Amino acid sequence: MEHQFSDVGGRRHRPQLNSHQLQTLGPDTHLDSPPATGDDTGGAALISNSESSLSRGIKALALAALLAMLFVGGRPTWKYLHSYESTDDAQIDGHIVPIASRIEGTIAHVYVEETQTVKSGQLLATIDPRDEQVAVENARANLSLAQAQADSARADYQAALDKIRQSEATLAKAKRDADRYTALLNQEVIARDDYEERIRLADVDAAAADSDRAAARSAQKVIASREASAQAAQAVLDQAALNLSYTKLVAPFGGIIGKKTVEVGQRVQPGEQLMAIVGLDDIWVTANFKETQVRRMHAGEHATIHVDELSRDFEGYVEGVAGATGEMYSLLPPENATGNYVKVVQRLPIRLRFNRGQDLDHALRPGLSVEPKVWLR
To answer: Is the pTM of this model over 0.85?
Structure first.
């Protein structure tokens, strides 16, 4: 519907419309605007299409640039993420040696306290040595007695050898006399009674020589028995001396005292743990990697070890791979041949060693949590 505007006094006036005409025009009709011509409508559409095309082109260029950036930056990122394997199931390990008594006794002195740093060979505690000193003296006396008995047996054997030589000399003379008397008897120079007496004496001397030889063999066996007794006495003395040395408990290596339970006057038994020493000079990392992470992992590969407690990275390397998974070393290893089977990814302990010269102040302690990264070749 077209609306006519009249000029009154040089101004355009909107005509008055009735209610039926207002309903026909609708709410979106602008009564104050002049009607648009055909040329104005075509120009607006052209401008709108141009703006739409430009917007689509800008969006396409932005998307292409974004894809290029993702390709250029994503490839190095992908390569970096696949150049290492890491885990948070790792901790520092070291030598923790329990100090136990090797003999029964009463603690006489304790020279160390909890968390104290000790050196190799340092005296830690002593057990009352008087019982062991008495045992040493007794063993020494028994050894002297056994040695004296062995010396006596050797002297008896020597005497038996001398008696053998004497009896053999007597026997040789008796045999010569018997031969001479036999010749005289054949010549009928002597009586048969004298001949038989000489033969009897020769037989007696032969029996005496055999008896002396048997006595010498017996004396030789006594020597062996006495020497064995002396060796046993020497062993008892050596054991007593060892027990006496065990009254002094010394540090097997340098470290820090921990888990100390011993006190002066305490009665201890063999094998009873009194304290422990934590070594700090030889430490390593046990990292439990998943079995799917160790495919490309080999000994000697470089590792970066982040220590949570120090918030610091240390350099290291892979020292070795365990011979079995951690579960195989457990108290109850799995038995997959029985019952229902559920596959679980296993973890394989990997030992990582720190490079030297990074822990001069011994800040690394066994048990600390670490997060290692092993850089794959």
So the answer is: no
